[in-house]
Amino acid sequence: MKNATQDVRVEKRYATTPADEYHERKRWQKKIRALETSGEHPNKRIKDTTEELKIEKDNVIPSNINDQTRKSIDEWEVKSKSFVETRAYIKVLEEIVSNSCVAVTGPSGAGKSAIVQAVSLSLSKENGYKIIKLLCPMDLRNYYSPGKKTVFILEDFCGKFTAREDQINDWCSMQDVVNQVVEDESCKILFSCRLQVYKDPKFDLLPKFQLCECNIISSELCLTEDEKKQIFNSHLSSEKITDNILFRKIDNFPFLCQYRSIGKNNLDIDKYFVKSHIKFIEMN
């Protein structure tokens, strides 16, 4: 059996002096510095790995798609410099704050896309939403990240001229994901849709996309005379708007202003708006 004397000898053999502790600290400090210099410090490796995993988890969108979206957003930023905040824009902005899915409807050339783009930029800048453009229903399944502040953008939803049955069916098959997104308080769906498409009976198969509609040519949201003047001046500051243009009902007024601003027509200003409006209706 061990006696007390043996225990004391063992304790002395393993006892450390202040000098021993000092040298031990120095030895570990030197080793840590060497690991840090070589990039092999365990804590650093753990931190780097954690950050890499977080980035990988957050980046559910392929880099090329992110690049395309960034390019689109840059183009929207340029367009926003001449954008006029109409009552339709204000209404859509109000509705998207309190609703998870908002449809911006109207005829071609009425400014639906411009409003959708401007509202999405506002949500991004003011509320920290990530903008994701969707090209097909599968994009929603692939890019939806629960709990992440995201605004999903769709333009010319389910058809440009008539309701595309194939596209509606594709979205019907994705209803489970649509329901998840709509119920997620962090996410929004904002889309433009032509009136004839939105009012098509086949569209009733997509009830989640009918939760809130902003018809921008309705009596409550159509352009006021003052708004028409502002839009005209933002694109055609060197020309003068006439009463014939101002008081005439021209649903595609924003498009005609933009189109003339890039030198696409040299007609007299009155003739341009009247003839182009009629021709545009016939084509669309």
UniProtKB/TrEMBL annotation:
Annotated ranges, domain Novel STAND NTPase: 83-237
Any Pfam family hit: nSTAND3
Composition-biased stretches (Basic and acidic residues): 8-24
Region named Disordered: 1-26
Signal peptide: none
Record's protein name: Novel STAND NTPase 3 domain-containing protein
Species lineage: Eukaryota, Metazoa, Spiralia, Lophotrochozoa, Mollusca
